[in-house]
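User: Structure tokens for this complex, please. No commentary.
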Amino acid sequence: MSFTVAAVIRTGGHTVSRAWLTALRHHFPQITSVTLLDDSRTAQKLARRRRRNPELPAGETLTAAELVSSPDLERADYVWFLSPDSLPEPDCLTQLHTRLSAADTLAVVGPKILAADGDLVSVGVTTTADGCRYSPVSPGEEDAGQHNRREDVFAVDEPGMLVAAAVVRQLGVPSETLSVSYRGIEYCDRLRRAGHRVEVVPQARIAIPAEGIGRYYSSPRPLPHKHIVRHEHRYRLATAGRGRSGITQLRLTLLAVLKALGNLLANSPDEAAWWLGAAWALPQDAHATRRLRRYRTGGSLPPSVYASRHDLRSARRELAGVGGEIAADHLREDGALNTAGDLAEFSGIDTRTKRSLLFHPLVVIVVVSSIASALMFYRLIGPGAITGGAWARLDVPFSAVVARIFSPILELGLGSSTPADPLLSVLAILSLPFGGSLDLMLRSLWLLALPLAATVMYLCAGRVVPAAGLRALLALIWIAQPAFLISLHDGRVGTVLSWVVAPAALWALDRAIHYRSVAAAAACGLAFAVIMAGSPFLIVPIIIVVITVMVVYRSTSFIWALLPGVGLSWPWLIAAIRQPDALLTNPGRVLDYAQPHSFQLALGWATRPQLSVLETWLPAAAVPWVLVALLLPLLAALVLAALRVRNSLAVLGLAVVCYSAGLAGAIVQAALEGQLTADGLVASFTGDSMLLIGLGFCGFTAAALWPVAFDRGSRVRSYALRGLIPAGALLMITAFTLQSLLVGTPIHRTTASPLPAFAAERHTGALGQQTLILQSDDDQLYGQLVIPESNTILTASTMHEARSISGHPFDRRPVAIDDADIALARIIGRLTSGSGDDTRTALDQLGIGFVVIRGSGASELAQTVAVSPGLTRLGATDQGLLYQVVPDGSPLSSVSVVADDGSLSPVEIVGGRGEIPAGTGQRTLILAERAGLARVQINGQDAVREEARTGAPSWQAAYQLPDEASTVTISYTYPQYAIGVGIGWALLFISVLVAIPFGNRSRARTAPRPATTASGTAESRSDERGST
Amino acid sequence: MNRRNLRSVLTFTAIALPGLMIAVTGYLQPLAGGSVPRGAEQVRLPATDTVSMCPGPLQTEDDVAGTDEEFQTSDVPTPTVRTASALTQAPDSTILAAGVESRTLGGEDNYTVGTTNGFVSGSDEQQDPTTVTGVAEGENPALVSAVQVTRADDGDWAGVAAVECVRPVTHARFATSGASATDDVRLVLSNPGETTITATTEATGAHGPIDIGGDATVSLEPREQRVIQLGAIAAEEPEVGLTVSADGGLIGAALQHSKRSGLTAEGIEMSGPVADPAREVSVPVAAGGPARLRLSNPNGEPVSVDVSAAGVDGPVDLARSGTSIPARGTVTLDIGEIPPAALTITADDRVTAAVEVTRDGDGGTDFAVFPAVEKLNSRQLLMLPEDIDASMLFGPGEGTLGVVGVRGDGSATGQFPVDLSGDRATEVNPAELLGEDTAAVIIETPADVSAFAAGVALTGRGVSALTVPDAPSGIGYRNIRLTD
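Assistant:
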């Protein structure tokens, strides 16, 4: 059918050749009128003059306003926009018209735009969500029909665009104020918002002159010239919406300034200047585009029309590879294939390094956390041993650590039979790369804890959230949890280790479930072993989780998630069955803390929020509230995650489970008798449950921010969260850093040794003398039996703490001390009674060779103690006033022979062996420890225990002695126990081997296979045959 | 259930469950039952010998002798020493009274008595300082006390000086008036042990520490007694606070005080050390009369004190009820005339105190010095002087004590309860309550009762304070904390 077309040629200031116009009208008889459109300022001035002065002759060119009201337009059905010297193909107009008239909702169609040599230029374009032009056509792409199926596009470019005339009359023409790149896009956007559709017709083709083709490609980065930013800004301002130009200008200004800074950092000052210049010119651009904004009627476009940033990045890489403009000799040279460039051009894989690694989110987080960690703990670098807080001294030889792990005897006070803490095994293994120095290893761990925890969380969060920025956000939340920072400050080794390892455990468990992989289950088990050693409170939740997983997925391979933990700590676990209080302990020294309220627990505070450094700036009553408020954005993330519809149900469910379990556990630990106060009783640290709460917060944040939503409300909320959560986290880290810098942490270096050197030497010598430390503070007398290993990790035992309390959950009471400790207390009482009592025999029986007196009341106590005969004052040492017990006769020893008349003679033990001379009468061999701990052999045979003799109290280890001279062997190794522990370690080693993923067989299955039928088996057999 | 329902359930759980947990436990206070600090272990110490040092006759060397024959001072009256050993119970329930060994400081044996069912000696005249040792048998504590009485009805030494023989200690403190023309104050130090001890004396006065110089440290050979004259080390000080520290052993310290105004004798007194410094000091003053309170402050900062008194009939008004003591200083507070009352001194920091009471008797005045005392503790034995009226004053307290009388033949009366009242002192006359022939009084204090007591010996001419001796070791418990 016939139709009339008004051709509109945008002159752009050039002259239009008559020949071309004639040819145009010749080829396309439907063109009834040709109008030259010129919106330059001179034309506008002329137009205004003409309006004022109607007698002036009509010029050749019209402005947009005139065009819309021109009579030519009223007579025509369609308007065809052309650029000068463009060559439409003969059937271009018919194709366009056929398509346009076929649908009522279509308002504009565009042809495939080609270059003069046949390369593609534009086949429909779109933008990203923030307004950068994206064209799927790469520079130099030849037309091989690959885009012939595209129809539904966001916009078409102006050359060759066919629009219904009624629409032009209503909505105007593409605006001159925008550049060629965005003109068509803005116009189509305008039409779309008015409810019309846009399509591209690839069968219709138009060729445009070669110059200026570069403007039809995607928005390039790095900027080839300075106008591109202005074009993009103008487009953004034109599409800003009524009344929002101010906010848009502000945003664009901020972005431009940031980009300028980024370019300055990246050593491209020219580009920085362009950005700043564009920012400066924003008001001018806003003014120029003000008329366009009034077209912004309501309605938002569905997000699917936009391109993603990923696509734009690929397009930009292609542009940058070619140089922004199409290269004349783009064609591939014959010769050696250079696939590197091709790979970069034709695939989406980025094989070149990005421009600035500094801006990668993980690097930012690691740098920030490294700086914070260095500022917090730089004092730990230096000579000496670390002590303080909950940190037990670690300056012990590696052999002593191994001996403790393989021996069930705890040399604390008068000795007891207590299995070693599993944490000791973990520390021993971790210190192997450091040459066996636990102190060095743990110091390094402390300095690296923040970046390490962030990195582990970043790597493991990839399972849940693919975007790098969000992963970094999760890592930041993880390390900024107050429980973690408090644990670092207080020296809670176990909790810190668990915190570093926990995300890896969950990641490995997820892989184990997803791939049914035994290797992943074993890796998960190794991580669980560390957590079980570091946070005993989590042993029960871990066991429950593993058993649940085994039951739900009906697979016994998940037992590997428990085996390493059990192997590492089975003696302790068995003892914990009888002493469930051990599950409430925290490894290390006992440190109590101010109990938090449960709403503070719910926000992640393991203790009552209090940082003394903030009290200098804020009133003391406000500090807890301020600290709690820093974590409120996480609570907002919780609510947002719960309310969103499109996030992953699994992540949300897991987060809910973790958070609730953590909160319940923390409440149990804090409010319901998990904690008992100082003086060596159990103090259950809520930080263990805070681990679960931290994981819950990370899960909630992931569910709140992923997947990214494009509607405005979600974007506002998500940006608010993305701003508030890091702000809160950084403030928290800053507060703790300031606390550590200005006030100090409880953990510190000390070069003082626990015992005076003389006393320590006598202990390690043949006589094995112990030291009694008496401390008088505020009228309270403290006594402690000390050996060089006291107050170190060798004598810190959670089982020992657990054994000292008893009672049902609502009435915990300390256990009364046993006979051995009563005897020790009596000796202390007699020494300090000031009555001149001769305590030498009693001291000799316990092998106490030295007495150290210290504390605020030391001088008075010393005078009282000095009254006792046999104490020689040796002098004042770092540890206090040192007195030596000088018995009349032979020296003191921890192993003595008691004769008939009660006199004691020492036995020197070297390397576990000692010689006893012959003697008459009933002699008894006594050891300065509780009965039943040492394995004593006399002349190669097991010694017989002596029961209840005078001179040998019943709690003390006493053995019968023959009359003749004999050899006594004392050892603290129990072969069965050592073998048992060794089997556990072997299990651990096997788990390590299992955890190393050899081969890909475990990845083949992703779901349980259905029962194979006979044909199924035949198929699989033929597959195998086929593949060999 | 399908995914939508599951999502709704999850949403509800995510918001409701934590909210519920917080709401329920939000302000839950930790249950008090289990937050028990691991307290100190109460250790019962084994019984050891109880040693009481009787200082011997009044020392008069270097006394200013008159040049005229008429002004020759009379002879010093010979003191008498009386001892008693009371029944005690061992942890294994055997009951016996410990044996007593009495010997002079020089080593001569006076007498030795084995374990009995109760023993009271006669009043033996002793020319030398005497050591009375109660020998602990097994686990039975040795509840043995002795009292030394110097008594004269006329002459230059008229008056009564009765002192419960002192226990050897490492630190002894006194708060006394200084030496002057009318007062002769001497510190008597004895070493009852076998080792040489060094005794260091520090003195404080009204204006702060007093520099003693070379005499501050004396060395005492085994069984040696030395006397330090306050007139020599702290001349012309109106009041002096003394602290004697012994190094290398235990020292028996007593203070001898005699007043003479020209030719008129104004009394004699011997007293033992006051209680250790404390923030709340109790001084039971069992005799009435014009009283002066001496307060000593061993701390580095000035201390302000408040004094209150509770008499038998209720609170007593004092002429002065508060003062401040300079750092390391001693002050005298004139509190006027008081009836027998228990003084309570409260201070910001630890102080010691003693009260000097003057009494007009037949033929002259005498004075008594009541020191600050420790709390009564389990079983204590107060010896009473023979043929001298004695009376006891218990300070205010809550609860009931028991007193048991020990008769002259060593047998014990039954226990008589003494009810303490909260705001007034209680006076007990042993002769009336326990019988005419009561030689000693056993004060039994239950563990939860906090009380103080002092005794006073009264004759027509003189008055003297009797301090209740400490409980022997083996009775009661000490608090010791064992740390790991």
